[in-house]
Amino acid sequence: MTPSLNPDLGEFVSTIYSRAFKPQKVQAKQLATELKLIEKDIGADLGVDPQILRDVQNFLLALSAVMLRKPQTTLHPPTIIVNRQAAVDISNPLAPHPISLALVRLQTESKRPEGVGYEAHVRGEAALAAALITSLRRCCPGEDIFVATPHRIQRQAVRAALGQAQLTDLVREMEDLALEQSPERHPLGTVTVDTIERLQGSEAGFVICLFSLPLQAVPDLPFLLERRRLNVAISRAKTLCILIASSVVLRPPVSVLAKDETAKGYTFLRAFEDRAWSSTITLDVDKF
Predict the structure, then answer these.
(1) Between 246 and which of 29, 65, 212, 230 could a Cys-Cys bridge form, CB atoms 3.0 to 4.6 Å apart?
(2) Closest by alpha carbon to 8, among 70, 123, 97, 100?
(3) In the predicted model, what is the mean pLDDT of the chain?
(4) Residue 113: CA atoms inside 13 Å, Cβ hemisphere, count?
(5) What percent of the chain has pLDDT over 70?
(6) What beta strand segments (E) does the chain contain?
(7) What is the CA radius of gyration of the chain?
(8) In 3-state terms, what secondary structure has residue 181?
């Protein structure tokens, strides 16, 4: 059976695998409409840092705008434009853009003399992931969400940022909303936060990949830039992959790329970056 993927995701995956992909024809409009529902949450207290939440809302609403061919000023377009002719009617100027690849360039800041430490950066990254999960759960309650983490410390930080009580309240609220919208009970999607190795072999509608590091964590780059690890994380997504990365990961020192496997991983990461709609989010980690 030929897999159904949006052209950008299918073309990106084909940089490693030579296989045919059948383009989806309805995902873009459905997802764009659902993401636009986030407008209703602007200014609401959803239990996560309000500034991060607002940045995430702007990011997701901008994705919706691009899909609906509306103007937006938040996202930078990809440098490689994938041919979408097979997926949309290019003669129709209102045909939606199918988008599956999105990139958040995370910048963490601190006023402390020692700068941003690794654990502080991880907590900031986790807060960003929690805001993404919260927003996606509210507008797309039926979709499964994976948060793919290279390290266990990231998994623990995201789970802590979500908070068991808060997540329970969110699920209950989504259940009430689903019952209001339809007399038939629709199953809610699940949220899974785990290491990449443990997610291998499974898929979700939304996948949030945590591949950011602070500047002083250069020694960890070879582990992070392993192509197999990147491929497993990104390829879990059926609808939308949001990759969170930082400047030291996206532009590593040349010395890090001396190893062939690391260089291959970086090439794969750059292929994603070139095809993704992207934005920068800056976090003050002193508050976490």
Answers:
(1) 212
(2) 100
(3) 84
(4) 0
(5) 77
(6) 4-5, 22-23, 101-109, 145-149, 191-195, 204-211, 237-245, 277-284
(7) 18
(8) helix
Q: Kindly provide the b/e burial profile for residues 208-239, where b requires at least 16 CB atoms within 10 angstroms of the residue's own CB.
A: bbbbbbbeebeebbbebbbbebbbbbbbbbbb
Cβ neighbours of residue 229 closer than 8 Å, sequence gap 6 or more: 150, 196, 223, 265
**Length in residues, the chain:** 288
SS3 state of residue 222? helix
Parallel, antiparallel or unpaired: strands 237-245 and 22-23: unpaired
pLDDT value of position 188: 86
Q: Of 282, 275, 147, give the one whose Cα is nearest residue 209.
A: 147
Contacts of 261 by beta carbon, 8 Å cutoff, 6+ apart:
222, 226, 227
On whether the CB atoms of residues 80 and 274 are closer than 8 A, the answer is yes
Per-residue pLDDT at 90 exceeds 70: no
At residue 177, does pLDDT exceed 70? no
- Residue in the structure block whose two tokens are 């800056």: 282
Task: Answer yes or no: is pLDDT of 22 > 80.
Answer: no
Phi/psi for 254 (5° steps) reads -60, -35
Side chain identity at residue 246, one-letter code:
S
Cα-based angle 93, 42, 194 (whole degrees, multiple of 5): 90
pLDDT tens digits, one per residue of 202-254? 999 999 999 999 999 999 999 999 999 999 999 999 899 999 999 999 999 99
Quote the pTM value. 0.85
Residues near 89 by Cβ (< 8 Å), separated by ≥ 6? 95
